[in-house]
UniProtKB/TrEMBL annotation:
<keyword id="KW-0472">Membrane</keyword>
<keyword id="KW-0133">Cell shape</keyword>
<feature type="transmembrane region" description="Helical">
    <location>
        <begin position="144"/>
        <end position="161"/>
    </location>
</feature>
<dbReference type="InterPro" id="IPR017225">
    <property type="entry name" value="Cell_shape_determin_MreD_prd"/>
</dbReference>
<keyword id="KW-1133">Transmembrane helix</keyword>
<dbReference type="InterPro" id="IPR007227">
    <property type="entry name" value="Cell_shape_determining_MreD"/>
</dbReference>
<dbReference type="GO" id="GO:0008360">
    <property type="term" value="P:regulation of cell shape"/>
</dbReference>
<dbReference type="GO" id="GO:0005886">
    <property type="term" value="C:plasma membrane"/>
</dbReference>
<comment type="similarity">
    <text>Belongs to the MreD family.</text>
</comment>
<keyword id="KW-1003">Cell membrane</keyword>
<feature type="transmembrane region" description="Helical">
    <location>
        <begin position="57"/>
        <end position="85"/>
    </location>
</feature>
<dbReference type="Pfam" id="PF04093">
    <property type="entry name" value="MreD"/>
</dbReference>
<keyword id="KW-0812">Transmembrane</keyword>
<protein>
    <submittedName>
        <fullName>Rod shape-determining protein MreD</fullName>
    </submittedName>
</protein>
<feature type="transmembrane region" description="Helical">
    <location>
        <begin position="105"/>
        <end position="124"/>
    </location>
</feature>
Amino acid sequence: MKMLKFKRFITTAVILLAAYLLQSTVFSHLELAGIKPNLLLIVTAAFGFMRGPKEGMWIGLAAGLLLDVQCGDIIGFYGLIYLLVGALNGLFEQLFFDEDIKLPLFLITLSEFLYGIVIYFLMFLLKSDFKFPYYLGRIIVPELIYTIMVTLIVYPLILWVNHKLEAEEKRSASKFV
């Protein structure tokens, strides 16, 4: 059983690291009007509602700390935001059904929108930058649309990996019964 937990941990870490590397390298070259999708938010939200608030929080914290190391002025700023995203998405674990993409798409959309609002509030509004309509129209909404388009490709891959891990865990659990 410990081996399966270790395998899940390693698989999740590889997915998180791959999302981080893709977001910071490949998608920085695929920017549209200076906007790139938020792959780390997709991974955090997906694991949150697939695995629950506790795992969503840990993955969110790791994703946020990766961003903090790369581009944060304050270590823990993005870590806290992503931790909250993972925890809040984890609250919907009971409503999550694998075959229905509407809830994951809605939750990732809502997470991306709230993420943009929080970033605006904490990074711009507190510095007396009151250009919210500009920020909403030029950054939040375009990033939201781009993230949704990428979610339609990335989310099924994350779901497939989660299915494989859960199937292996069920096979292992049935051997002990």
